[in-house]
Specification:
383 residues, mainly alpha, Growth Hormone, Chain: A, 81% helix, 0% strand
Length: 383
């Protein structure tokens, strides 16, 4: 892989360090700030809304500004926001700080993935996306494991402080030493076409079906991940640090899952690979809700994490296959826009399900949405 692509993938690792920390902390925040399950869900909902509002602007930024500057800016925002979170003693200041961290994600992802899809050789796109997502899984795993360590020693705020230093250091590395350029000009054939014809090239029926399917999948994926540590603590009686550690093992397994998803998409086709991954994820979520023995529960959770992480590579690859090359920045911004709309409502929706039924019910609830998205994806052409 070329050096600029490694720079992008390493930046992805740092961007994802804080990805799951706030949801892993939900059992801790309930106790520390005396909250109920619906109140604490805003720590996932409000940051997702902020991230949502940044997606379309980030798509336009990706088409107009140098990738190196956007990656530098995303790292800078994330690092200073993490420093803010590490010093807060107010729940609402925590929500504000996490929201600011979330701003960095669309700025990075849309510019980084646009560069990645343009620079990778077409027949290696799926594999390159696999490496990209594997580094992201590694980052989120590092974040969760460090959180588990600090929860049992110095306190959870130290996890945010600990990672702020390397994040800010890497921002300087990206700015000073990376050579990341992206062609921002729209392809000539798209420029020559106007009006409805141009819109039909960008917003094809297949791409719209794909976006709806991703939105439905996101309800299941976000609902289960938001309350997974709460499920471990409340339903299966794990300690908070143990639940965070088990949750943190998921992204480590996700490294292999991301690589496997990229390889599988290359071997059997992107749509077929995504279908196999989604049905496996749904079955394992159903099984996870039935597990009571600790070791069985951990094994099923790790298998679920493997297949859940395998989904990202074919999804990202499908965006590049369904969008014209000159408009992939916009394509990724719409893709992430749908994800964030769903991520902003799914935690509250899942919390409502927990209140009405029980914590375990969130898992089959989430699996049902994943199966629905799988059915919709069958309407895509075979790729």
């Amino acid at each position: 892989m070329k050096k600029p692509l490694w720079m992008i993938c390493t930046t992805h690792m740092f961007i994802e360090v804080y990805l799951y920390m706030q949801v892993a902390l939900i059992p801790v925040l309930i106790k520390e700030f005396q909250l109920n399950i619906l109140e604490v869900s805003v720590v996932a909902t409000i940051p997702s809304l902020v991230q949502l509002m940044m997606n379309v602007p980030s798509g336009f930024l990706a088409e107009r500004f140098n990738t190196r500057h956007l990656l530098f800016g995303s790292m800078l925002i994330e690092g200073f926001s993490a420093l803010m979170v590490s010093q807060t003693s107010s729940f609402w200041m925590l929500v504000l700080g996490v929201s600011m961290i979330k701003i960095a994600s669309p700025i990075y992802h849309i510019s980084g993935l646009s560069q990645l899809s343009s620079s990778a050789e077409p027949y290696k796109t799926s594999r390159t996306m696999g490496f990209h997502n594997a580094l992201g899984s590694l980052g989120s795993a590092f974040g969760l494991v460090s959180l588990a360590v600090f929860l049992s020693t110095l306190g959870w705020r130290w996890a945010y402080l600990f990672w702020a230093v390397p994040v800010l250091f890497w921002s300087l590395m990206v700015f000073l030493f990376s050579k990341l350029e992206v062609e921002n000009a729209t392809k000539p054939e798209l420029k020559r076409r106007g009006g409805l014809r141009r819109l039909s090239l960008i917003f094809s029926l297949e791409f719209l079906v794909f976006l709806v399917a991703i939105g439905i999948w996101g309800i299941g994926n976000t609902g289960s991940s938001t309350f997974m540590t709460t499920y471990f603590v409340d339903a299966r009686q794990f300690s908070e640090s143990a639940a965070s550690l088990i949750f943190g093992l998921g992204p480590f397994v996700g490294i292999l899952g991301s690589l496997s998803g990229g390889y599988l998409g290359e071997r059997i086709g992107t749509r077929k690979a995504l279908s196999w991954v989604l049905i496996s994820s749904a079955i394992l979520l159903f099984a996870l809700s039935l597990m009571s023995h600790p070791y069985s529960l951990i094994i099923i959770y790790l298998l679920y994490s493997f297949f859940s992480s395998s989904s990202w590579s074919p999804m990202n690859t499908l965006v590049t296959e369904l969008m014209p090359e000159g408009r992939r920045g916009l394509g990724f911004s719409l893709y992430f826009l749908i994800e964030m709309i769903v991520a902003s409502i799914a935690p509250t929706l899942a919390a409502g399900v927990i209140v009405l039924f029980d914590i375990w019910f969130v898992l089959p609830f989430s699996a049902t949405f994943i199966v629905t998205s799988l059915i919709l994806l069958q309407f895509l052409r075979r790729t």
